[in-house]
Specification:
The protein is mainly α and about 90 residues long. The protein is built from 4 helices and no strands. The protein has one domain. The protein is elongated and about 40 Å long. It comes from Bartonella choladocola. This is ParG protein.
Length: about 90
């Protein structure tokens, strides 16, 4: 695992823990399965989201994206997908 994946993995884990602690009403299992099926089939529409990161990490990610020839969004999405695949929820 490279440094970028470690940083993103740690940030994602921290956010995931916070979200799990903040959620007071769990959606129904049927609703979750329906939403997951849409995401897997690629029928979900893109959404915008905000993320606060420190300036040094932003610069590191931006430089990495330039040298890799990928957008920052592509790198983050790929990293999150890999993280989720490696750390399935029980």
């Amino acid at each position: 695992m490279n440094e970028l994946e470690e940083i993103l993995g740690g940030a994602i884990n921290e956010v995931s823990t916070k979200l799990q602690n903040d959620i007071t009403i769990a959606p129904s299992e049927k609703n979750l399965k329906r939403k997951a099926a849409k995401l897997i089939k690629g029928k979900a529409t893109p959404i915008k989201m905000s993320l606060e990161i420190n300036r040094e990490f932003h610069l590191q990610l931006k430089l990495y994206s330039i040298y890799a020839g990928k957008s920052m969004r592509e790198i983050i999405e790929e990293s999150v997908r890999q993280y989720i695949k490696k750390h399935p929820l029980e």
